[in-house]
């Protein structure tokens, strides 16, 4: 079973996406802030990291940079799931994100986009 780490400070979105991913057959780990997320990544490297950018304690960009600078996790696929606009996509991808999924709310389109991004990464 593939493991997904979901880091999002929104409890509603974290719980909804965790349920969605578990229902799709993934083992789901969750974190509410960047510090906790980074701790989990370092102790138990998941198959995919789903990362919000706007996080308390340590920002998503800082988490992404830490993941990319660590030889153990530098190849870890990172899906940025953020409410930041598409205008920030190039900057986030330049920081080392594997995929970019814009979240507007918990919606079927958002869920579909996230599942498709995870499937693409795991198939490659």
Produce the secondary structure layout.
Elements: E1 3-7, H1 11-23, E2 27-31, H2 34-43, E3 48-51, H3 60-69, E4 78-82, H4 89-94, E5 99-102, H5 108-123
Parallel strand pairs: 1-2, 1-3, 3-4, 4-5
Helix pairs in contact: 2-3
For the record, the CATH architecture stands as 3-Layer(aba) Sandwich
CATH class: Alpha Beta
Beta-strand share of residues:
15-25%
| CATH homologous superfamily label | Response regulator
Radius of gyration, whole Å: 13 Å
Tell me the major beta sheet: 5 strands, parallel
What spatial form do the alpha-carbon principal axes imply?
Answer: globular
Q: Ends: how far apart?
A: 16 Å
**Overall residue-averaged pLDDT value:** 90
Binned, the helix content reads: 40-55%
Named CATH topology: Rossmann fold
* Number of helical regions: 5
User: Which strand order spans the largest sheet, edge to edge or round the barrel?
Assistant: 2-1-3-4-5
Please give the domain count.
Answer: 1
Number of strands: 5
| Order of SSEs | EHEHEHEHEH
Uncertain regions spanning at least 5 consecutive residues: none
Based on secondary structure, the structural category is alpha/beta
